[in-house]
Amino acid sequence: MTSKQLNESVEYLIEKGFDKPEIGVVLGTGLGKLAEDIESPIEAFYNHIPYFPLATVEFHAGKLIYGILEDKKVVVMQGRFHLYEGYDLVDVTYPIRVMQRLGIKKLFISNAAGAINLNYKKGEIMLLEDHINLQGGSPLAFKNVGEFGNRFTDMSEPYDPEMRQKLIKIAEQEKITLRQGVYVSVLGPQLETKAEYRMLKMMGADAVGMSTVPEVIVANHLKLPVVAVSVLTDECDPEKLQPVNIAEIIEIAANTEPKMIKLFRELIKEI
């Protein structure tokens, strides 16, 4: 990755009409409907943006959408990239660097995750307080990373405390159950074994997924305040583990999505 590549991606989007967005949003698996609320949308498909990776997961749309939401300029990633698709971590996080160069000052991230904390139930939302990276690498581990920020990025508070507190308050006002906890990111795409779920619980994880952590690391590298939520789509009880049903996971994500959209829209209003 070079500054020249990033600049070409940004220039293409500016020519399309992406004009100084204030907020970037990454939408997770089954969580694409927020994009439908954007006023005066301008779309840029990933396969048209110079140096952009392509989304290969069938339920990820694969486009950047720019427009107005709650009177703010936003750019939304409808469809994200994962290591399990065969990308490297620089590819996975490339769009975050592009959005930051476009001008975003805050980043919102959503994902679908499994509940390891059995006090948390499918259909609930968890606000990420912290994370554990078990993806086996770092999006900052490349030769010229120093051109883009401090190689040894501090991760003592990866999720912006101010935006987290705002989301907690919004959830209370809207009577939305908002859990809080630690998200662990694994490589995938296979789901976990019973023994792996037991291990993750012992490590202190409350939810498990296959995304988000690389984007959050890069946001911190860029000194870009970030907040993230998980829509909990299944309960990972190793003593009662059932075969995974991807269709059910997508359905639960879709049913819970309006609550996530409400949280994000209210937060956009406030910042």
Automatic annotation (TrEMBL):
Pathway per the UniProt entry: Purine metabolism; purine nucleoside salvage
Enzyme Commission number(s): 2.4.2.1
Gene Ontology biological-process entries: nucleoside metabolic process
Taxonomic superkingdom: Bacteria
One GO molecular-function entry: purine-nucleoside phosphorylase activity
Family: Belongs to the PNP/MTAP phosphorylase family.
Protein name per the record: Purine nucleoside phosphorylase
